[in-house]
Specification:
By secondary structure, this protein is mostly helical. The chain has helices at about 1-25, 40-55, 65-85, 95, 115-125, 135-145, 155-165. It is about 55% helix and about 0% strand. The longest helix is centred in the first third of the chain and has 23 residues, at about 1-25.
């Protein structure tokens, strides 16, 4: 039993020292263009989903009405589109260089099936974290617009299309 315990402690020390050497000698892939470290996606994904499940608001404090949806589209265009894209526009150089790669919301990577509270949490706490830069109302307006992007009323669709493409609706 004593031999097992000594072996376990020594094995643990080797693993810890190996990890310290790996990072301390600059062997870890830390550039945004590098492939993720082993288990990085798995561990980061588990932590992210657990945190969102625990902290994401369950209900929006504002209605998903036309004024809020249009305000959300304006805020998205000004604050979010450089990374997450605009409808009919090519991906920006900034978006191409970010790790992890930001979803392109108007090219198939939609969040319309996510609860608005989850999108709110990601906008408030993600990369970049807009909590403190945008008001709570602004964060909710963007979150509601993205959650409802595939089911906007006709008048909001036309106005949102103009806001998100920059082209006047005829």
């Amino acid at each position: 039993m004593k031999t097992f315990l000594i072996g376990f402690v020594l094995g643990l020390a080797v693993v810890v020292l190996g990890a310290l050497a790996y990072f301390g000698l600059g062997l870890a892939p830390v550039a945004t263009s590098a492939t993720p470290m082993p288990f990085e996606r798995l561990l980061a994904g588990m932590a992210l989903h657990a945190r969102i499940s625990k902290e994401a608001p369950k209900q929006a404090p504002i209605p998903a009405d036309e004024p809020n949806l249009l305000a959300g589209a304006r805020i998205y265009r000004e604050q979010c589109s450089v990374c997450h894209g605009l409808n009919g526009q090519p991906e920006t150089a900034i978006a191409k260089g970010i790790f992890p790669h930001p979803p392109q919301f108007f090219k198939g990577d939609t969040v319309t099936d996510d609860p608005p509270g989850e999108t709110y949490w990601k906008a408030a706490n993600g990369m970049p974290a807009y909590k403190g830069s945008l008001t709570e109302t602004h964060l909710w307006q963007v979150s509601l617009m993205l959650a409802n992007a595939d089911k906007l009323p006709a008048s909001a669709q036309a106005a949102t299309r103009e806001l998100l493409t920059g082209e006047p609706v005829k």
